[in-house]
Amino acid sequence: MSSVPLRVALNDGHFIPILGFGTTVPNKVPKDELIKATKIAIDAGFRHFDSAYLYGIEEEAGQAIRSKIADGTVKREDIFYTSKLWSTFHRPELVRSCLEASLKKAQLDYVDLYIIHFPMALQPSDELFPRDEHGNLLVDLVNLCDTWEAMEKCKDAGLAKSIGVSNFNRRQLEIILNKPGLKYKPVCNQVECHIYLNQSKMLEYCKSKDIALVAYCTLGSSRDPLWVDQSSPVLLDDPVLCTMAKKYKQTPALVAIRYLLQRGIVTLAKSFKEKRIKEMMQVFEFQLTSEDMKVLDGLNKNLRYNSADYFNGHPNHPFTDEY
């Protein structure tokens, strides 16, 4: 029935499952809920888990994955695990230490994908967002190409099977792609992408360079007041989306995810509710018509839920460019 492949080929020969489970935990949710949700996700059929140093939950994510390996549900090679380099580790001599810290927390020998979380370096610090006494962000100016060379070394060392980037605009991607002596191209660019921000230009560009587009915030975000404008529209309440969901006898969330999958986008989604997690696998059981895909294309508003305001003033802020 489904015309969507379960895996997408990466430009280095590895494969990434097209549907992934996100592991960010909103402040109001206890961390141990993630252990439970991740185990349910594995039992439901998820094999791709997206994490990051920033999230502070790699211990819990790793614990859940290891427990499902221990009980025989999956083998390590069945799981595709992503982690991300945080901005205070962009200096080339620090890159590997960030990855090693993530591996130690998750108690894994390697990650399947390691990506630069943001193209914006911050000064090395124990704080995630180091600031001076006036509250100004302590920016570090590190050449992206130098950081990328250190990422390539992590791949060569076997600590990461594949390497990529996240939240890069076209110009920043080209800095790496045009780097003299480039050994490995980024396999992906992970960006915010949903019906209100459909990233059509970035998708077209990435496809032309054989770079996979990976989507986060696919259902609009968890609306955490720390980083989401509370006056922004609730994506899953969109009337067009809700009408279409009734037509297909699916939830608005499943239609929103299916829209991305049919465009060839690797899609991350998450829930802490068992029913919703299991339901997500039904996304492979129906298909949107080309007419309905065009209707959903028309909902684009170039609306960002995550505008990375916490990096405001950084000279490498990626969202000032068109894409």
UniProtKB/TrEMBL annotation:
Residues 19-300 form the NADP-dependent oxidoreductase domain. The keyword Acyltransferase does not apply. Keywords: NADP, Oxidoreductase. InterPro entries: AKR (IPR020471), AKR1C (IPR044482), Aldo/ket_reductase_CS (IPR018170), NAD(P)_OxRdtase_dom_sf (IPR036812), NADP_OxRdtase_dom (IPR023210). Transmembrane segments: none annotated. CDD domains: AKR_AKR1C1-35. It comes from the Eukaryota. Belongs to the aldo/keto reductase family. PANTHER family: ALDO/KETO REDUCTASE. This is 3-alpha-hydroxysteroid dehydrogenase-like. The gene is LOC101988147.
